[in-house]
Amino acid sequence: MDSFISWVGGKKLLRKDIINRFPSAFDRYVEVFGGAAWVLFYKDKGKNEEIYNDINGELVNLFRCVKYHPEAVENEFKLILNSREIFEIYSQNNTNGMTDIQRAVRYLYLIKASYASKTTSFGAKYRDITNLEYLHDVKERLSKVVIEHKSFDKLIKQYDKSGTLFYCDPPYHNTEKMYDTGDFVFDEVQHVKLRDMLGTIKGNFILSYNDDKYIRMLYKDFHIEEIKRSNNMALRTGNNKLFSELIIRNY
Ligand SMILES: C[S@@+](CC[C@H](N)C(=O)[O-])C[C@H]1O[C@@H](n2cnc3c(N)ncnc32)[C@H](O)[C@@H]1O
Questions:
Q1: Are residues 169 and 243 in the same domain?
Q2: What would the pLDDT profile of 36-92 be if each residue is shown by its tens digit?
Q3: What is the DSSP secondary structure assignment for residue 222, as one 8-state letter?
Q4: Would the CB of 14 count as within 6 Å of ligand 1?
Q5: Phi and psi dihedrals of 208, rounded to 5?
Q6: What pLDDT does residue 67 have?
């Protein structure tokens, strides 16, 4: 199935290529940099344990509320008037006094009503964003997924064992600032730390990255494949230029 949100760097167009490269057997699947979880939603549930994680607390709260209270999210969402003024109030990021459901609805609204789902500027083009019936299917899909809110290093340490498959989709090199990661800045030190950790795990990893000299150099000891794909924005912008991404594995 599809994810219930768009997300900057979401892997809607790369998900098949990634899943086709999964190892034939694993008993624990961990999506380390979860975002909208396009790969997790597309993959078969299987019999494996599944873990979703992201450092963004508002996004994680949204996933948790949809998992446990989709009706409450849907009902509260219907009360919002879709307007630039409401968007601007919500984008001030003041969540004081809000319940978890209200925070989830605020964030879902920012994702749905913003330009390119970046949550920062109002996407003035009218779209009907009020039909949330599909949240019930999302709840079903997430029913056995463990939802974590940790930085990648702590998460990998916690869930590593032989039989774990980590899917890592970190902020791409030189686009790190596109994500709201609070006090945790994803810089080159973090790219190196991720490589070092993935180099010592007992489980398997599959990693997606932008095709970049620095990333090729960091992962030169692993299996690197180049995949060409069209731009996520191609339909909206008419820019059909292909660009390449890397899929990197330790198996
Ligand atoms: C490229 S996006 C993931 C997109 C996702 N694969 C999808 O299909 O939507 C990268 C994600 O990493 C998260 N992130 C950034 N720094 C992180 C960290 N230190 N630990 C865990 N997640 C982090 C961001 O919040 C963002 O959602």
A1: yes
A2: 999 999 999 999 999 999 999 999 999 999 999 999 999 999 888 888 888 888 988
A3: S
A4: no
A5: -115, 140
A6: 98
Q: Is 55 in the pocket of ligand 1 (CB under 6 A)?
A: yes
Domain match, 14 and 62 both: no
Beta strands at 49-53 and 145-148: parallel, antiparallel or unpaired: parallel
Residue 248 has pLDDT above 90, yes or no: yes
**Is residue 33 in contact with ligand 1, taking CB distance under 6 Å?**
yes
pLDDT for the residue 80: 84
169 to 5, 38, 206: CA distances (angstroms): 17, 11, 9
Q: What is the mean pLDDT of residues 229-250?
A: 76
Task: For residue 148, list its beta bridge partners.
Answer: 53
**Rounded to whole angstroms, how far apart are CA atoms 61 and 84?**
24
pTM of this prediction exceeds 0.90? yes
Q: How far apart are CA 103 and CA 89, in angstroms?
A: 13
CATH of the domain at 104: 1.10.1020.10
Best mutation site among 1, 31, 55 for ligand 1 pocket (most ligand atoms within 8 Å of CB)? 55
Please count the other Cβ atoms lying within 10 Å of the Cβ belonging to residue 97: 6
Could you tell me which of 242, 241, 204, 208 has the C-alpha nearest to residue 225? Answer: 208
